[in-house]
Amino acid sequence: MSIKQPNEMKIHIQIGQLRYLATPHQNFLLPIKYHFRSNTMDDEEQLDVGMFEEPADFAPPKPPTVAYHEMKSGHKVPIHLVGFNLREGHYLWNGARYISNWFEDNVSSIKDKTVFELGAGGGLPSIVAAILGAKKAVCTDYPDRELIEFIEKNIAESSTLIPEPKDRVVAEGYEWGQSPKPVLAHLDEQGRSDGFDVLVLADLLFKHPQHENMIRTIEMTLSKKRDSKALVFFTSYRPWLQQADLAFFDRARDHGFKVEKIFEHRLEKPMFENDPGDLDVQKLCTGWEIKWPEEKCSA
């Protein structure tokens, strides 16, 4: 069991795979509401039920799964995913697939570059980057042992597709906004000083309270070379919160970054077919490039 007490004085209590919420004026625990999509938590919503009652839309934990991503070469990359996970690591998101496709269409943007992936889940973009010849890809997610072990398993299963040296892609635990020293430690001396050439953020923008920490991480780790970039690909799976997702880019501009939309793809069907909301929004995946302004670039 683990207990976390955020600044707003809500106490989050983790018991196995279930999470509960208590506030100072309560003498009982409220289960944090499962979102309309099974096993997706929403901290801002609470159910008016006691600790031992299940929400009406409760779905039991799911076992681990495996998904496959087919590259244009025909190679299939297996991605093993944890079962139920509070940090959404149990899905292979659209953003991960389409940023991986973008790498194949823009190999020069990734070959011989250093890559840092945030909130990687199964780690598909980092693995594809390594297959395409990235100099180093550091694939990170929250420092949860199970999440990192699954990334390591996925890297190992694609090792035959990765050119030597095989350690050009590694898994590492990292919490957004914290010191990036453990991540930068995987680079050579020059890289530790300069930062990464490419950052990857695939389907992370729905975590609105973490936008500032994501941008702070970009500030601390993105190299100031002119061609360095943070690639942000995402779908607004909750269409009514699309503007809150897009607010990430306004915040990035407020921090002095240049932001440009570089990709758009409309899927034939949404990832979650029974979800409510505007289907056109749910079927749209866009990609954005965040770069340092010219006056801050060093090379």
Automatic annotation (TrEMBL):
Gene Ontology MF term list: S-adenosylmethionine-dependent methyltransferase activity
InterPro entries: EFM7, Methyltransf_16, SAM-dependent_MTases_sf
Pfam families noted in UniProt: Methyltransf_16
An example Gene Ontology CC term for this record: cytoplasm
Listed SUPFAM superfamilies: S-adenosyl-L-methionine-dependent methyltransferases
GO biological process assignments: methylation
Keywords on record: Cytoplasm, Methyltransferase, S-adenosyl-L-methionine, Transferase
Presence of the UniProt keyword Cytoplasm in the record: yes
Classification via Gene3D superfamilies: Vaccinia Virus protein VP39
Name the record gives this protein: Elongation factor methyltransferase 7
Annotated organism of origin: Truncatella angustata
Taxonomic placement: Eukaryota, Fungi, Dikarya, Ascomycota, Pezizomycotina
